[in-house]
Amino acid sequence: MDVYRIRFGNLVLAISMVLLASCKDNPKENKATESTSEKPNLLYIFPDQLRNAAIAINGEDPVYTPNLDQLAKEGIVLTNAIANFPLCSPSRAMLMTGKVPYNNSVLTNANSKRYEFDNSWQRDDVSFSDVLVKNGYDAGYVGKLHL
Questions:
Q1: How many domains is the chain partitioned into structurally?
Q2: Known active-site residue 23
Q3: Would you call 88 a catalytic residue per the annotation?
Q4: CB 3.0–4.6 Å: which of 74, 114, 118, 137 could bond 132 by disulfide?
Q5: Could you tell me what percent of the chain has a pLDDT over 70?
């Protein structure tokens, strides 16, 4: 019954878009947005191998992560999420495009020289950051994008 299957990547993109749309503040309720801008700030942290013991908000000692704990308290924490692919680059490409690796052409890690096929992100794929920029956000990344 492939017709009724929902692809994980498409589901992640759809949920991300719903969350983005629901972040719009009501100016009467939140005066902080009046002085800065109409759009909320978005910070998407996508770490590699974030185990339960890696952040103090999960109650693990002796981990001390006060800044991450504060972000978690003020934002959204996905506690039951999994990667749909066991490699870094395909997982990140799925997150950015909403497409599974076989549809976004990123089938292995970006720096892998072991395969003789094109393993690059297709330029015509619309990404999560493309949608943000189109809607007036400044988008950037810090750290390992690995795509």
A1: 1
A2: no
A3: yes
A4: 137
A5: 68
Catalytic residue among 88, 94, 95, 96: 88
Mean pLDDT of 84-92: 84
Q: What is the dihedral of CA 24, 27, 32, 35, to 10 degrees?
A: 110
Catalytic residue selected from 84, 125, 132, 146: 146
Is pTM beyond 0.85 here? no
97/84 Cα distance (integer angstroms):
13
pLDDT tens per residue, range 108-129: 887 767 766 677 777 788 988 8
| Numbers of helices and strands, H then E, in the chain | 6, 0
Contact 99, 79 (CB under 8 A): no
Question: Could you tell me if residue 111 is inside a domain?
Answer: yes
Please say whether the beta carbons of 72 and 79 come within 8 A. no
35 inside domain: yes
Domain membership of residue 125 (yes or no) is yes
Which amino acid appears at position 61 of this protein? D
pLDDT score for 56: 86
pLDDT digits (tens, 9 = 90+) for 48-66: 777 777 888 888 778 888 9
